[in-house]
Specification:
alpha+beta; 22% strand; binds flavin mononucleotide
Length: 265
Protein backbone atom coordinates (compact mmCIF):
# COMPACT_ATOMS: atom_id res chain seq x y z
CA UNK A 1 0.00 0.00 0.00
CA UNK A 2 1.45 3.38 -1.02
CA UNK A 3 1.92 6.17 1.54
CA UNK A 4 -0.47 8.35 -0.57
CA UNK A 5 -3.24 5.77 -0.15
CA UNK A 6 -2.71 5.57 3.56
CA UNK A 7 -2.83 9.38 4.01
CA UNK A 8 -6.08 9.69 2.04
CA UNK A 9 -7.58 6.80 3.98
CA UNK A 10 -6.62 8.42 7.27
CA UNK A 11 -8.21 11.69 6.15
CA UNK A 12 -11.35 9.92 4.96
CA UNK A 13 -11.72 8.06 8.25
CA UNK A 14 -11.10 11.29 10.18
CA UNK A 15 -13.65 13.13 8.03
CA UNK A 16 -16.39 10.56 8.53
CA UNK A 17 -15.61 10.34 12.22
CA UNK A 18 -16.06 14.13 12.48
CA UNK A 19 -19.33 14.02 10.55
CA UNK A 20 -20.72 11.19 12.71
CA UNK A 21 -19.64 12.89 15.94
CA UNK A 22 -21.14 16.23 14.93
CA UNK A 23 -24.44 14.52 13.99
CA UNK A 24 -24.44 12.76 17.37
CA UNK A 25 -23.68 15.95 19.32
CA UNK A 26 -26.19 18.15 17.51
CA UNK A 27 -28.80 15.37 17.55
CA UNK A 28 -28.41 14.98 21.31
CA UNK A 29 -28.63 18.74 21.82
CA UNK A 30 -31.86 18.89 19.79
CA UNK A 31 -33.34 15.86 21.57
CA UNK A 32 -32.50 17.23 25.02
CA UNK A 33 -33.82 20.76 24.36
CA UNK A 34 -37.42 20.06 25.45
CA UNK A 35 -36.15 18.40 28.62
CA UNK A 36 -33.84 21.35 29.37
CA UNK A 37 -36.73 23.78 28.85
CA UNK A 38 -38.98 21.69 31.12
CA UNK A 39 -36.25 21.70 33.79
CA UNK A 40 -35.84 25.47 33.48
CA UNK A 41 -39.56 26.00 34.02
CA UNK A 42 -39.63 23.49 36.91
CA UNK A 43 -36.72 25.25 38.56
CA UNK A 44 -38.37 28.65 38.13
CA UNK A 45 -41.62 27.32 39.58
CA UNK A 46 -39.79 25.96 42.63
CA UNK A 47 -38.23 29.39 43.17
CA UNK A 48 -41.60 31.12 42.91
CA UNK A 49 -43.06 28.68 45.46
CA UNK A 50 -40.06 29.14 47.67
CA UNK A 51 -40.57 32.94 47.77
CA UNK A 52 -44.24 32.40 48.59
CA UNK A 53 -43.29 30.08 51.47
CA UNK A 54 -44.96 27.16 49.68
CA UNK A 55 -41.93 25.02 48.92
CA UNK A 56 -40.29 22.82 51.52
CA UNK A 57 -38.22 19.67 51.90
CA UNK A 58 -41.37 17.55 52.16
CA UNK A 59 -42.11 18.14 48.49
CA UNK A 60 -40.23 15.30 46.88
CA UNK A 61 -41.55 14.96 43.36
CA UNK A 62 -41.71 17.20 40.31
CA UNK A 63 -45.43 16.36 39.96
CA UNK A 64 -46.05 17.74 43.43
CA UNK A 65 -44.27 20.98 42.48
CA UNK A 66 -46.42 21.22 39.34
CA UNK A 67 -49.57 20.58 41.33
CA UNK A 68 -48.86 23.28 43.92
CA UNK A 69 -47.62 25.71 41.28
CA UNK A 70 -50.83 25.23 39.29
CA UNK A 71 -52.52 27.46 41.87
CA UNK A 72 -50.54 30.35 40.36
CA UNK A 73 -51.30 32.11 37.09
CA UNK A 74 -48.37 33.73 35.27
CA UNK A 75 -49.20 37.20 33.92
CA UNK A 76 -47.06 39.70 32.03
CA UNK A 77 -46.88 43.27 33.32
CA UNK A 78 -45.96 46.20 31.10
CA UNK A 79 -43.76 48.32 33.37
CA UNK A 80 -44.50 51.47 31.33
CA UNK A 81 -48.23 51.32 32.02
CA UNK A 82 -48.19 49.29 35.24
CA UNK A 83 -50.90 46.96 34.00
CA UNK A 84 -51.24 43.38 32.84
CA UNK A 85 -50.95 42.81 29.08
CA UNK A 86 -54.10 41.56 27.36
CA UNK A 87 -54.05 38.55 25.02
CA UNK A 88 -54.07 40.74 21.89
CA UNK A 89 -51.13 42.75 23.21
CA UNK A 90 -49.21 39.58 24.03
CA UNK A 91 -49.86 38.34 20.51
CA UNK A 92 -48.70 41.60 18.95
CA UNK A 93 -45.51 41.38 21.01
CA UNK A 94 -45.13 37.68 20.13
CA UNK A 95 -44.96 36.75 23.79
CA UNK A 96 -46.05 33.23 24.64
CA UNK A 97 -46.61 33.30 28.42
CA UNK A 98 -45.84 29.59 28.80
CA UNK A 99 -42.39 29.75 27.24
CA UNK A 100 -41.44 33.40 27.88
CA UNK A 101 -38.00 33.72 29.45
CA UNK A 102 -37.51 37.39 30.17
CA UNK A 103 -33.82 36.99 30.89
CA UNK A 104 -33.27 36.00 27.25
CA UNK A 105 -34.62 39.31 25.94
CA UNK A 106 -32.64 41.64 28.17
CA UNK A 107 -30.59 42.87 25.21
CA UNK A 108 -33.46 42.93 22.71
CA UNK A 109 -34.63 46.52 22.32
CA UNK A 110 -38.14 45.35 21.34
CA UNK A 111 -38.59 44.05 24.87
CA UNK A 112 -36.13 45.91 27.03
CA UNK A 113 -34.39 49.26 27.45
CA UNK A 114 -31.46 50.97 29.10
CA UNK A 115 -32.22 52.36 32.55
CA UNK A 116 -31.24 56.04 32.82
CA UNK A 117 -28.39 56.33 35.30
CA UNK A 118 -30.22 58.50 37.84
CA UNK A 119 -33.10 55.96 37.98
CA UNK A 120 -30.87 52.89 38.13
CA UNK A 121 -31.10 52.28 41.88
CA UNK A 122 -30.35 48.57 41.50
CA UNK A 123 -27.37 49.23 39.20
CA UNK A 124 -28.74 46.97 36.46
CA UNK A 125 -28.04 49.16 33.39
CA UNK A 126 -30.91 47.48 31.44
CA UNK A 127 -34.32 46.12 32.27
CA UNK A 128 -36.97 44.07 30.50
CA UNK A 129 -40.17 46.10 30.11
CA UNK A 130 -42.47 43.07 30.06
CA UNK A 131 -42.10 41.29 33.38
CA UNK A 132 -43.61 37.96 34.27
CA UNK A 133 -45.36 37.90 37.65
CA UNK A 134 -47.31 35.08 39.31
CA UNK A 135 -50.66 35.58 40.96
CA UNK A 136 -52.64 33.28 43.20
CA UNK A 137 -56.28 33.99 43.96
CA UNK A 138 -58.50 32.61 46.70
CA UNK A 139 -62.28 32.97 46.35
CA UNK A 140 -61.84 35.49 43.52
CA UNK A 141 -59.54 37.74 45.56
CA UNK A 142 -55.80 38.23 45.08
CA UNK A 143 -54.05 36.15 47.73
CA UNK A 144 -50.39 36.21 46.68
CA UNK A 145 -48.40 38.11 44.08
CA UNK A 146 -44.84 37.02 43.26
CA UNK A 147 -42.61 39.48 41.39
CA UNK A 148 -39.11 38.99 39.98
CA UNK A 149 -36.42 41.19 41.54
CA UNK A 150 -32.77 41.65 40.64
CA UNK A 151 -29.97 44.02 41.45
CA UNK A 152 -26.22 44.33 41.59
CA UNK A 153 -24.66 43.48 44.95
CA UNK A 154 -20.90 43.09 45.59
CA UNK A 155 -19.78 40.52 43.00
CA UNK A 156 -22.65 40.38 40.56
CA UNK A 157 -26.40 40.53 40.03
CA UNK A 158 -28.68 38.89 42.58
CA UNK A 159 -31.76 37.28 40.98
CA UNK A 160 -34.78 36.36 43.06
CA UNK A 161 -38.49 36.55 43.68
CA UNK A 162 -40.37 38.63 46.23
CA UNK A 163 -43.82 37.44 47.31
CA UNK A 164 -46.44 39.86 48.60
CA UNK A 165 -49.78 39.19 50.26
CA UNK A 166 -52.97 40.13 48.41
CA UNK A 167 -52.85 43.62 49.97
CA UNK A 168 -49.82 44.29 47.69
CA UNK A 169 -48.04 45.63 50.75
CA UNK A 170 -47.23 42.87 53.24
CA UNK A 171 -44.17 40.75 52.43
CA UNK A 172 -44.79 37.02 52.25
CA UNK A 173 -41.21 36.02 51.47
CA UNK A 174 -38.03 36.59 49.51
CA UNK A 175 -35.92 33.97 47.73
CA UNK A 176 -32.75 34.51 45.71
CA UNK A 177 -31.99 31.74 43.23
CA UNK A 178 -28.85 33.05 41.56
CA UNK A 179 -25.99 35.09 42.94
CA UNK A 180 -22.23 35.49 42.88
CA UNK A 181 -21.78 36.59 46.51
CA UNK A 182 -19.27 34.92 48.82
CA UNK A 183 -20.45 31.78 50.63
CA UNK A 184 -20.68 32.51 54.36
CA UNK A 185 -20.83 36.30 53.73
CA UNK A 186 -23.05 37.79 51.02
CA UNK A 187 -24.50 34.41 50.05
CA UNK A 188 -26.18 34.38 53.47
CA UNK A 189 -29.02 36.26 51.76
CA UNK A 190 -30.26 32.73 51.07
CA UNK A 191 -29.95 31.56 54.67
CA UNK A 192 -33.45 30.77 56.03
CA UNK A 193 -32.54 32.54 59.27
CA UNK A 194 -32.22 35.77 57.25
CA UNK A 195 -35.03 35.27 54.74
CA UNK A 196 -37.18 34.38 57.77
CA UNK A 197 -36.95 38.04 58.84
CA UNK A 198 -38.98 39.17 55.82
CA UNK A 199 -42.50 37.72 56.13
CA UNK A 200 -44.92 40.20 57.68
CA UNK A 201 -42.83 43.33 56.90
CA UNK A 202 -44.65 46.20 55.20
CA UNK A 203 -43.46 47.88 52.00
CA UNK A 204 -45.41 51.16 51.73
CA UNK A 205 -46.09 53.87 54.32
CA UNK A 206 -49.39 55.78 54.50
CA UNK A 207 -48.19 58.14 51.77
CA UNK A 208 -47.59 55.16 49.45
CA UNK A 209 -43.79 55.55 49.55
CA UNK A 210 -41.46 52.54 49.67
CA UNK A 211 -40.43 52.42 53.33
CA UNK A 212 -39.09 48.88 53.58
CA UNK A 213 -35.33 49.13 54.20
CA UNK A 214 -32.45 46.75 54.90
CA UNK A 215 -30.53 48.58 57.62
CA UNK A 216 -27.11 48.08 59.16
CA UNK A 217 -27.38 46.47 62.58
CA UNK A 218 -30.66 45.52 64.17
CA UNK A 219 -33.72 46.54 62.20
CA UNK A 220 -36.91 47.14 64.09
CA UNK A 221 -40.60 47.67 63.46
CA UNK A 222 -42.71 46.89 60.41
CA UNK A 223 -40.40 48.45 57.84
CA UNK A 224 -36.86 47.37 58.72
CA UNK A 225 -34.79 44.26 58.09
CA UNK A 226 -31.44 43.71 59.84
CA UNK A 227 -28.56 43.84 57.38
CA UNK A 228 -26.23 40.82 57.28
CA UNK A 229 -23.27 41.12 59.64
CA UNK A 230 -20.01 41.11 57.66
CA UNK A 231 -21.88 41.56 54.37
CA UNK A 232 -22.93 45.18 54.40
CA UNK A 233 -22.29 45.58 50.68
CA UNK A 234 -24.55 42.68 49.72
CA UNK A 235 -27.17 43.99 52.18
CA UNK A 236 -27.00 47.35 50.36
CA UNK A 237 -27.56 45.52 47.09
CA UNK A 238 -30.74 43.94 48.49
CA UNK A 239 -31.90 47.29 49.86
CA UNK A 240 -31.29 48.92 46.46
CA UNK A 241 -33.19 46.27 44.51
CA UNK A 242 -36.16 46.61 46.87
CA UNK A 243 -36.19 50.39 46.36
CA UNK A 244 -36.02 49.96 42.58
CA UNK A 245 -38.48 47.14 41.94
CA UNK A 246 -41.11 48.29 44.41
CA UNK A 247 -40.72 51.93 43.40
CA UNK A 248 -42.17 54.13 40.65
CA UNK A 249 -39.94 52.73 37.89
CA UNK A 250 -40.54 49.11 38.86
CA UNK A 251 -43.77 47.46 39.99
CA UNK A 252 -44.86 50.50 42.07
CA UNK A 253 -47.69 51.60 39.73
CA UNK A 254 -49.15 48.06 39.45
CA UNK A 255 -48.99 47.56 43.23
CA UNK A 256 -50.54 51.01 43.86
CA UNK A 257 -53.45 50.07 41.56
CA UNK A 258 -54.01 46.81 43.43
CA UNK A 259 -53.89 48.57 46.80
CA UNK A 260 -56.32 51.27 45.75
CA UNK A 261 -58.71 48.71 44.21
CA UNK A 262 -58.74 47.01 47.60
CA UNK A 263 -59.15 50.26 49.48
CA UNK A 264 -55.65 50.09 50.99
CA UNK A 265 -52.88 52.69 51.10
C1 LIG B 1 -12.71 37.54 50.05
C2 LIG B 1 -13.78 38.46 50.56
C3 LIG B 1 -15.07 38.24 50.16
C4 LIG B 1 -16.11 39.10 50.59
N1 LIG B 1 -17.39 38.87 50.17
C5 LIG B 1 -18.36 39.72 50.56
C6 LIG B 1 -19.70 39.54 50.12
O1 LIG B 1 -20.04 38.60 49.40
N2 LIG B 1 -20.61 40.45 50.51
C7 LIG B 1 -20.30 41.52 51.32
O2 LIG B 1 -21.18 42.33 51.61
N3 LIG B 1 -19.06 41.69 51.76
C8 LIG B 1 -18.08 40.82 51.41
N4 LIG B 1 -16.82 41.01 51.85
C9 LIG B 1 -16.58 42.02 52.89
C10 LIG B 1 -16.60 43.42 52.36
O3 LIG B 1 -15.39 43.70 51.75
C11 LIG B 1 -16.86 44.38 53.53
O4 LIG B 1 -15.83 44.25 54.44
C12 LIG B 1 -18.15 44.07 54.25
O5 LIG B 1 -19.21 44.13 53.35
C13 LIG B 1 -18.40 45.06 55.37
O6 LIG B 1 -19.47 44.54 56.17
P1 LIG B 1 -19.61 44.92 57.70
O7 LIG B 1 -19.65 46.41 57.73
O8 LIG B 1 -20.91 44.30 58.14
O9 LIG B 1 -18.42 44.33 58.41
C14 LIG B 1 -15.79 40.16 51.44
C15 LIG B 1 -14.47 40.37 51.84
C16 LIG B 1 -13.47 39.54 51.41
C17 LIG B 1 -12.07 39.80 51.85
Amino acid sequence: MSSKDSTSKTLTVAFFLCVICSILVSGTAVLLKPRQEANRVLDRNKNVLSAAGMFDALINSDEEVDQIFSRFTPRIVDLHTGRFLLDAELEALQIDVESYDQRLVINDSNYSEAIPRQQDLANLKRRVNYQMVYIMEEAGELDTLVIPVSGYALWGILYGFLALEGDANTVKGLAFYELKETPGLGAEVRNPSWTGLWPGKQVYNDAGEVSLRVVKGAGSGDFQIDGLAGATLTSHGVDNLIQYWLGEDGFGPLLADIRSSRGGR
